[in-house]
User: Fold these one by one.
Assistant:
Number 1:
Amino acid sequence: MDKKKCSSKYIDELIERYPSLLICKQDIQNAFLTLKKCYENGGKLLIAGNGGSAADSEHIVGELMKSFKIPRKLDEAFKNNLIKEDDELGKVLSENLQGTLPAIALDGHFALSTAYMNDCEPLLCFAQQVNGFGNKNDVFLAISTSGNSKNIIYASVTAKAKGMKVIGLTGEKNSKLSMISDICIKVPETETFKVQELHLPVYHCICLMLEEYFFGN
């Protein structure tokens, strides 16, 4: 199966399990293509959300930074470099390290976050990290069930100003985030916990497609 058909397979399986997400099909595909281009160009993904969406941010990082479903073998050149640096330790590293898709969740830097919130403007904490970490080839995944979380909006505006692409992940209502985003996946629910219940299979699908594209046979 070629990679284009494989990515389509994952979206079809997603919609078979969650028929209400049919309305999001093209946006999910566009989000995948945007992230594919980001990683092909040496970029990384920055992710932010509040509460349950902060937990989702960390969850996504876990799926991208290590094997999700399939093995992610290192390329031979890097394996050889590891062994060249230290024969004993390099062999352990070369046999156990996995290929990665770089991703950073912005909720977990407690010293930086608390320092910035204490010294500066608390609502700009994510924006400050986007300003520091973000580059032109990167993508910002902005998660907000309402689409109107102020700290997420500030970070999204900062990302756009840095030349980054912004992917929004929200509920079905039009929002400030849906207007700012280059792509906005608006799952068809409005109540917070129901929106979050649909966010998880959406980002799992995107992670599966990315893993298959970059690490599949």
Number 2:
Amino acid sequence: MDKAITLKIFKQKMLADESLPLRKGANNLVFGEGNADTKVMFIGEGPGYWEDMKGRPFVGNAGKFLDQLLHSIKVERKDVFITNIVFYRPPGNRDPLEEEIFAFKKYLDGIIEIINPKVIVTLGRFSMAKFLPGVIISKVHGKHYKINWKGKEIVVVPMYHPAAGLRRLEVKEETMRDFQTLAELLEKTNKVDFEQMQLV
């Protein structure tokens, strides 16, 4: 079945799941959007105010910065897939709780399985911790890690959340440099066999 159709069916399944946390206080499910056939997936933390209002990921100020970062490496937003670690807005934009992340895990895992990306860029420490538990983002941001995810090799690139770059100029500059490194990685993935890539 076509991946885009499979994602739509999967979204309906999530919408029907009344057991999910954060659902009652939210306006919209923020499922994710982009190219279902992409090799590159971005995973943030959770919807903010504008994401909750519009039902789309990264459409507020942090989203505008993410768009700039993508543009800087000549990547169109529509050509990647963007989602979050939780799919309903935490009250007051607080951090998602461990039990909330766990409740959404099966759905995020399902999206990853459907898309089957080669590269996952984590935006912020919560999505990073899903793939690289126990590491500190200030030590690993912008580096590339080849991991085994459910029997498949995926390259994970941890990045600062774009919102952090809006708060601190130093982080913003580091994130911009990290995206240039990401561009080099993406160029390699188009030229060589992924299995032969030598990464951190």
